């Protein structure tokens, strides 16, 4: 058997006179870009919706009680203050355990406007981990009118 040389000649494309040209836009790249954007949004949504779940008390009868109120303050630098005295982060769980033994006590937390949210969330997680259910937030009055500037 002998090998035969073949030459390939490009075939000239000539549409038939009766056949119209195909002029539709290729939307495949557009769909690919939209799918990539959709996947990126799906991946970033859990980051945006980070929250610390807290069971807040429901409105009830407004009877004044003689409850002992303890206050935790978060300074602009991130330090903790328990009833006016500075405490270390390691001492907070012990204080919260003592608070839980008190029958009619309430805990209030106040954060300075310049305090970092991350530090506030960490403190709130420690409070929640201790099982505190009688918790109030102090200092949020400045956010009652959202148009008012922060002080």
From TrEMBL:
Domain of life: Bacteria
Keywords assigned by UniProt, alphabetized: Cell membrane, Membrane, Protein transport, Transmembrane, Transmembrane helix, Transport
Membrane association type: Single-pass membrane protein; Single-pass type II membrane protein
Subcellular location, principal: membrane
Ranges that cross the membrane: 21-48
Cellular compartments annotated: Cell membrane
InterPro entries: ExbD
Pfam families linked to this entry: ExbD
Keyword Ribosomal protein applies: no
UniProt cross-references to PANTHER family, sorted A to Z: EXBD MEMBRANE COMPONENT OF PMF-DRIVEN MACROMOLECULE IMPORT SYSTEM, TOL-PAL SYSTEM PROTEIN TOLR
Similarity field: Belongs to the ExbD/TolR family.
Protein name: Biopolymer transporter ExbD
Source organism of this protein record: Sphingomonas hylomeconis
């Amino acid at each position: 058997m002998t090998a035969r040389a073949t030459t390939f000649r490009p075939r000239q494309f000539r549409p038939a006179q009766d056949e119209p040209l195909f002029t539709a836009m290729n939307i495949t790249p557009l769909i690919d870009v939209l799918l990539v954007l959709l996947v990126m949004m799906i991946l970033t949504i859990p980051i945006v919706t980070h929250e610390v779940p807290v069971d807040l008390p429901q409105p009830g009868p407004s009877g004044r009680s003689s409850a002992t109120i303890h206050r935790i303050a978060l300074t602009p630098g991130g330090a903790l203050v328990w009833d006016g005295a500075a405490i270390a982060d390691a001492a907070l769980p012990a204080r919260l355990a003592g608070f839980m033994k008190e029958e009619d006590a309430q805990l209030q937390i106040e954060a300075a406007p310049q305090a970092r949210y991350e530090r506030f969330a960490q403190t709130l997680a420690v409070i929640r981990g201790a099982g505190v259910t009688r918790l109030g937030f102090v200092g949020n009055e400045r956010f009652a009118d959202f148009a008012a500037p922060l002080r």
